[in-house]
Design brief:
mainly alpha
């Protein structure tokens, strides 16, 4: 709808411009006073001067439309960046919430394990470490930890 309205206005402007140029042509409409732009003296009729005005107006309109198109593009890029930032912040908040939930679950599990070990349930003394039988390999030990009795650090038997 806006495009059709724009075409109608453009067509009306062209018709009025052509009528202005043709209606003010000839010796009856000669410029009586000297008219100069940037040192260039315009001679002829008022119709010629009107035509120059139309050309200058069209050039100004083209420059203005380029300026507005660039501003619109910059605005769209800015809104897209803000939308991406908002989405990133939402994802970060969701991941942080998941992390906090997992930390809470881990702390609950540790508290449960500590309370179970503290109750003295059979076979749950952390000081007791079962020794592997002769046919089983030794459990992984942290570096620098002493090997269980009867084994060397490389897992072989004496």
């Amino acid at each position: 709808m806006i495009v059709i309205l724009g075409l109608i206005i453009l067509l009306a402007a062209v018709i009025i411009g052509a009528a202005g140029v043709l209606g003010n042509a000839g010796s009856a409409h000669a410029l009586s006073h000297g008219f100069a732009v940037f040192g260039y003296h315009v001679t002829g009729s008022t119709g010629t001067l009107f035509l120059y005005g139309i050309v200058v107006g069209a050039v100004a309109l083209a420059g203005l439309s380029l300026l507005l198109a660039g501003a619109r593009r910059t605005s769209r890029r800015g809104s897209a960046a803000r939308r991406g930032l908002r989405q990133s912040r939402q994802e970060t908040a969701a991941v942080s919430q998941d992390r906090d939930d997992l930390i809470g679950q881990r702390d609950t599990a540790r508290a449960y394990t500590a309370s179970t070990l503290g109750n003295g349930t059979p076979g749950s003394d952390p000081a007791e470490t079962p020794e592997p039988s002769a046919g089983q390999p030794a459990a992984d030990l942290p570096a620098g930890a002493a090997a269980p009795a009867g084994q060397s650090k490389n897992g072989s038997h004496p």
